[in-house]
Hints:
By secondary structure, the protein is α/β, with parallel strands linked by helices. The chain contains 20 helices and 23 strands. The strands form 3 sheets. Strands 1, 2, 3, 4, 5, 6, 7, 8, 9, 10 and 11 form an 11-stranded mixed β-sheet that branches. An 8-stranded mixed β-sheet has the order 16-13-12-17-18-19-22-23, with helices on both faces.
Amino acid sequence: MSSGAEAAKVRLAHGGCLRVGINTANYLLVDAGSVGSNPSDLSGVAPSLAAELAKRLGSELRLVPFKSPSALADAVSSDSWDVGFIGADPSRAESIAFTAPYVEIPATYLVPSGSPFTAPSAVDVGSARIASVAGSAFDLWLGRHVKEAEVVRAPTMDAALQLLLDGKCNVLAGLRDRLMKDAARVQGATILQGQFMAVQQAIGVPRSRGREAENFLSNFVEEVKVSGLVRSLIDKHQVTDRLLVAPLVAAQEEPPTKRLCVAPQGLGSTGPGDAKAASKVVPASREDGLSAQSMKIAILGCGAMGSVYAGLLASGGHEVWAVDTWREHIDAIRKDGLRVEGASGDRTVKIHATCEPDDVGLVDLVVIATKASAVGAAAAVAARLVRPDGVILTIQNGLGSGDRIAQHVKTDKVMLGIASNFGASMKGPGHAEHKSMNLICIGEMAGGMTKRLQRVVDAWATSGFKVKACENINAMIWEKFICNCTYSGSATLTGMTVGEVQDCPSAWAVALACAREADAVARAQGIPLGFDDVEEYVRKFGSTVRAARPSMLQDHLAKRRSEIDAINGAVPIEAAKVGMEAPVNQTVADLVRARESVF
């Protein structure tokens, strides 16, 4: 047994016995016929992997069955299991550390005959009542992401189906495989094509067991994927095409010879002082390390948000380069990989990282993730890196990024992006925390739908992002901009969270005045906003992120200059273009700049 396994055994196995929590409700992972009075009789993909894990630890195995994923997750507080086979979800991450997924299960909707809903993305409207299973991974996702529809929760999938049959709901959420069986009981039923999410089945461990145990389990998951064991168990238990083997990510804290990655051709693996030292993860099935849809991507500005983009895009099989001036961060990424934990799971990926843009070479996609004030300089770099048929995508808060890029490159190469309800922070060099994620919208700067736009959107979607292509991205930028104006300056000047701004009458009066000014300017410019009542709109947005501290406030807490010129400071400039003024935003911007003058 390796030293890592010995250390993990001490952390995981009580007296030489490994207690593994199993969710018996997941019939794709546990053979339904094996569920009975004797836990040792359980069979299926999950019990088989549990047996392999106990074997590698040299421990006795005791399977601990639970009737639902929520029951398994709740039992972490009673020390009922050492390792749990459970869906990875950020709402459980405070007490449970998750590996990367070993399998993924697509989830979608079933609708009855005559339903107006034709795609998963169309369901989130006020007329929809979605029947779901309380505490399931897809239900937790619905709880975080559904804004307009009502989610009606039942204790079991059978009970959720009954809600649909009784006419109490008009949409049924579930795993695609289960819905295919339920469709026979619903006259004229349709299972919507695509998916609203994929349930990521992972291995969880109580956080109290420490990093040695977490790292051992993470490596175990990657090894059983790359060895073909997961695939063979899927075939053995006859769930082929109903379960998907999850993509590979980097191994954790193992000697270099054991890492599940290969060095890029032509690059040596020298020390952290070599800006060209890097490596990338590739699935074993790819002989050249890239799939036909893979891209070479450069992330310019690899701070908190840029690190999340880099981590997930690399996990999606793309060749990613992180470019940043923070040398400690770049050195940490080259040495140990980039760790991204939080809303998107917990993963460590090996990517290229450098402080020198010229190391990168030509790329298919440049993502500019810098502060708004640095977009111009980043665009000049992007112009040197992008291939003749490549794309530059800029994702910033505020207005004006596209115009600043246009000073350096032709706008026919430029796409604009918006990250909605997307929060991140740095926990240290090489380590980002992904706090929240809702939707990324991407569109051509010139407007319209194109094939290359769909290719870029597909690259993000297959990497784990909820993303959509937008025909009129400028309208959506303004909609987000109005929310930024509402909360960024007001929270920064008061030190309050978004929710605290809403709850304080004095702070809210200033915030709402900023919103109304920005809204009036947008309408005067002819921007086709997707709402009528600006107060209702910004209140609803704020209610979804009440605990958030806007990035402008985070900058001030760290004594850094903010993006005030692109947010509240931009409103008076845009107002002047249509003969208007924005005195409240002007005052807020002046006060923020006054604070920054002493940083």
